[in-house]
Each structure stands twice: as C-alpha cells, then as structure tokens.
Amino acid sequence: MREEKKHIVIRGYGTISPLGFDAESIARAYAAGKPAFASILHQGQPTPVAALPAEAEQKLQQLLQANPNYKQLDRSVLMAVYAAKQAAEQAGWLKEGVSVDDALAVNIGSSRGATGLFEQHFEAFQQETLSSSASPTTTLGNLSSWVAHAVNAGGGQISHSITCSTALMAVANGVAWLKAGMAKRFLAGGTEAPLTDFTIAQMKAVGIYSKLSDHPYPCQPYAAEKQNTFTLGEGAAVFALEQVQNPKKGTPVIEAVGLGFEKLVSKTGISAEGINFQKSMRQALAQLPEHDRQVDLIITHTPGTRAGDKAELTAIEAVFKDGIPAITTNKWLIGHTLGASGALSLEYALHVLQQQQYTFTPYPNLLEQQMPQSIKRIMVNAAGFGGNAASVVVGITGK
C-alpha cells in the first residue's frame, strides 16, 4: 500500500521589518507600495537606510521592557524573539503551564549577528571598561537560545550564518529535521540589525552602496540605469513549520528546497552566469511533481548591485529558458536585510499568494512586468558572499 505523502506546512509566521510589525500592518504597507527608506548622515555623507517604523520600534521597546534580561541583548536578538513569539502564538504553540516543549526545535540565523553590541563592546574594550556580558551576548548562539527561552522550546537549537542565504538555509534545516523525525515542530528564520556605522562602512568599502539618498527609490533592483543601488535594511521573520499528511485547504506549504554553491570567482562569490542560482533553482524544481513543475512568480534576491542582479537574471533565463515566470522583489521597498532577507522574501511570498497580486517596480527597469493570471506557486531565491545560494518553493493547498 502506497504511503500517503506528507507535507511541510507553515502553521504561522511572525515578522518585524521597515514595513511594519505584523502581517496586517505589513500587508497595508505592501498595498501602499511606498518605500521605507530614510536618509541618515554616515561618515559625513547622506546615506539611505530602511529602519523599523515608529510603531514597530514601539513594539520592540515593549518587548524590551517585558523582561529585564532582554536589556543586555543585541537588537538582532530582540527582533528574532519578537518574530518567533508571533509565529509560535499564531501556530498555537505557546501554551500556558508548559515549561518546555522537547519536540520544538529552533534555527534562527543572522549574517552579521550581534554587530551593534559587538561594536559597543569593542569601544568599551578600547576604554578598558569591558562588561562581563560581552562574550555571551555577542556569540551567535544566543540568537536561538533566547528565542527558545521565549517560546519554551526544548528541542535542538541552532544559530548559524551562511551570509545572505542564512534564513532560507534555516528553512532548509527545518524541512530536513522534520522529515528525519528529529523534531515535530520547528521554528526557522532570520534576523538582522545591520544599521551600524561599521556595517554600513563595510558595504560602502565593497563599492556597492547606493548614492541615491535624495531619490524616492534609493534601492533599485533590475534598474535600467547601470549603477549600484545596494541599500541596507533591518528586520526579522520566523516561520512555524510542521509535517502533516492532510493539510487543510488554504494552508501554506513548503514544496521544495534547493541549495547551490559555486567556487569563488570574485570577492562576493558570484559568477556572471549565476551558477549557484542555477544549481539551487534546478534542485528545487526537481523536487516538484514531474507533471507539474510550473512556477508562477520568482521573488529574486537581486540586492540592487549591477553584477549580482544581472547574474541572477541570467541564471533564471538559463533555467527557465522560454518559460520564464513573472519576477519581482521587495528590496526596492525595504532594502537588503542580509541574513533576514530570505525570510522577509518568503513572508512577502505568503502575502502575494494570499492577495494574488503585487506592486510592480515603479522605476525604469529590465523586467517585462505582467501580472500572472493566477499565482499558485512562488520560488524565493537568496544568495550570499562565499558562493552559496538557496531557492525555496512555496504554495497554498487547494490553489
């Protein structure tokens, strides 16, 4: 007798970003289509960034006040805790009177980790006044451990960095753990708080940071004009994953996860052909049913850099040939959130699947923008320094 197929479903998700502090506020922001950038002065230069809006910042401060121990944590950890509690509550996993859920595992990643605190502690070190909390609060492991405390998770706890593919790699881990029976429930996501002097300076040193501080669209993926418009943003998104046999109609499902890697050919680790993207997309497509491998929309990584954007579009052409799906991104609205970007793109995918529409990029660009008649399946791409890439395919049951 043939065993019934099991599905990896998204029971709930939590998010905080430059667009808002929950699904409703962020949906309104997506519908408005207004970029979330502001200009700050960095090293004497006007510099565009996408920070949390006032309402989201207030929610984060309320979380900070709720637990005295949170005052020593980095902003990246606080955002992860906020998003994870939201996801667990939506999934029905936050139960009163339950001390520890040994069947719940956690994997939260970040590209840069506690960079804000690290910079503060290094400054204190130079003044010879280093705090005893410097080491435990800057180690990457405190991401998932503090999330686990917040949601009473007693299963495996993983914190990791695989640069800007980090969040989708966490989702890949969640899928693998659930299929292997190593957990019954899994919280996976990414968080990033990179709006610090040192991190912004690093991106400027690479030569990719946007100089369009006075432009309504400082971050312009696929721009027709040949220029780099990389712009940093902050945020976090976490997903509550579970394996079930018969998901209800309308349930979000992770249909496939593909990973890719290529040998370093540049300081950022991406070739002109986007070989890593080609590998991850092909691997994901191969996991779909042989008779139905159609993807209706791709939410691309495209951070607004000339080389990176072109490489990904080239890879999409190589993989899909004459059947290229519609293409979009949310980075023109929120910038590049590094390790959290894949999670925030996946959150955007869930929004698009529900609304069946998205806002076209409004500046001159290289895309042939046409809304699909229906959007049943979306591929989300991410890639990072070092040559890695990931592609996740998400759909809705019954669509």
UniProtKB/TrEMBL annotation:
SUPFAM superfamilies (alphabetical): Thiolase-like
Transferase recorded as keyword: yes
Entry GO MF terms: 3-oxoacyl-[acyl-carrier-protein] synthase activity
Alphabetized UniProt keyword annotations: Transferase
Domain Ketosynthase family 3 (KS3): 5-396
InterPro entries: Beta-ketoacyl_synthase (IPR000794), Ketoacyl_synth_C (IPR014031), Ketoacyl_synth_N (IPR014030), PKS_Beta-ketoAc_synthase_dom (IPR020841), Thiolase-like (IPR016039)
PROSITE patterns, alphabetized: KS3_2 (PS52004)
Superkingdom to which the source organism belongs: Bacteria
Keyword Transferase applies: yes
Homology family: Belongs to the thiolase-like superfamily. Beta-ketoacyl-ACP synthases family.
Protein name per the record: Beta-ketoacyl-ACP reductase
Organism name: Pontibacter mangrovi
